[in-house]
Fold this sequence. Notes:
The protein is an alpha/beta fold. It has 2 domains: 2-245 and 446-469, Aldehyde Dehydrogenase, Chain A, domain 1 (3-Layer(aba) Sandwich); 249-434, Aldehyde Dehydrogenase, Chain A, domain 2. The protein is built from 15 helices and 24 strands. The strands form 7 sheets. A 7-stranded mixed sheet has the order 15-18-19-14-13-21-22, with helices on both faces. A 5-stranded parallel sheet has the order 10-9-8-11-12, sandwiched between helices. Strand 11, helix 8 (226-235) and strand 12 form a beta-alpha-beta unit. Helix 4 (89-110) packs parallel to helix 5 (152-164) and helix 5 packs across helix 15. It is globular and about 65 Å long. 53% of the residues are buried. Bound molecules: NADP nicotinamide-adenine-dinucleotide phosphate. The site of NADP nicotinamide-adenine-dinucleotide phosphate has 31 residues, from helix 7 and helix 8. NADP nicotinamide-adenine-dinucleotide phosphate binds at residues 144-148, 153, 171-175, 204, 208-209, 212, 223-225, 228, 231-232, 244-247, 278, 372, 374, 400, 441, 445.
Amino acid sequence: MNLTSYVAGKPVISDKMLEVKSPYDNRVVGTVTLANATHTAEAIEAGLKGGKKLNRYDRFSILDKARQLLVERKEIFAQTISAESGLAIREARYETGRAHDVLFFAAMEALKDDGQIFSCDISPQGKARKIFTTREAVSLAVCITPFNHPLNQVAHKLAPALAVGVPVILKPSEKTPLSAILLTELLYEAGLPHYMLSTLLGPTAEVAEALVKDPRVDIVSFTGSVPVGKKIAATAGYKKVILELGGNDPVIIMEDADMDTAVYLAAEGSFRNSGQRCTAVKRILVHEKIAAEFTRKFIEKAKEYTCGDPADPETKVGTVIDEGAAIYLESVVNKSVEQGAKVVLGGKRKGALMEPTVIVDVPRSADMVVHESFGPLAPILTFKDIDDAIALSNSTAYGLSSGIVTNNMNYALRFIKELKVGTVNINEVPGYRIESSPFGGIKDSGLGIKEGVIEAMKCFTFVKTFSLPW
Ligand code: NAP
């Protein structure tokens, strides 16, 4: 598949080419022509120059047409996601379904009014007026996306921006650019005016950093790692910055938990998507009273997550993003063993395939507990009571999401109130959401600004207030 960067619908012609290789067998699965600083400048100018202004019905129609085209091409998208990222094909098909929902919800939201009305005669200081609000689109957005969920992360930026009519310059991950470019082409085909979208791959200094720093860009919406997010925050200057960063999410299993539910959620949370979700379970925290039984059953369950060829529909865990990432994960496991932990399942890698790995007796200070390990690692830690569980959960720099397994309402309410995270899911994995519900983290995971289709649409607009005599 030979694809190109696009400046406002125009393919970038260049002899500089990015080769995208399968993390599983290293074969070249696609190429992309690369943009340079001139293309970046042209994309900014094209977005700002604009073109036919889209009304709500236009935006709905384009997003809904894109949704229909995605349904028709869902297998091509799934195969592309799997080939470029090494994700198991069953996960890639699921992701394509999620991207469908993003387009679907954004299309519907485009039709809704977003204003508020305030009557002013409601206090002794009031008078006979009404105050109204309306949302106006910002002029130009830059969206930068990570390698995990190569299609859905991109859909989560583009669909809300297009739903409110904001021109976007997209900079997808150079590790997984193919799905992003296929989505770009699909949106053009669905009738998106070309000025509304440029998609650029190229050297960081000439594309991503140049876009972040440009004062004509109104908003940078970034999803990715903490170090890059913080760098963007430091260099973006006077503009809106949306940061959706890393996570170190726990699943917390209380002593009253339904054991089968706990085992299932811990396994799904740890191993789905090769553990490469920002909201993957990165720490399993279990009440000490049930830890032995949980661990025994969890090891059995973990064996069901077969790791291998991503193209095989039976494979549950494909590769991680590249061999370097697998080597890093293996080293994190080895380091935890040096610190006293014990590997009870997995722990080895072959190329970019990292085995689903269960580790016990992990010290609370181990790297894999303190930092984000982006792969299928499942460290089990114990706690003695709810106070200890809350303290342990809150002890990292991250604050994205959490999953709690309990049937005790008092426990549930305490976790909801006391965990320093953006989301608390009771009897669900931390990653549970629908594509339109508010999503995002605090502390190092983000600035508390939510995404999800509805909140992201707000990010791409500003509120104008006007008032009238009434
Ligand atoms: P990353 O290394 O931070 O890269 C993310 C994007 O930033 C890529 O497009 C990358 O481009 C670009 N980039 C790199 N350096 C940049 C710079 N100096 N200025 C501007 N952009 C720059 O993240 P990743 O490894 O792809 O993704 C994994 C991370 O994303 C994990 O930490 C995960 O938790 C996080 N994540 C968070 C969420 C959330 O919603 N909170 C969701 C998904 C993932 P190149 O590819 O060209 O380097």
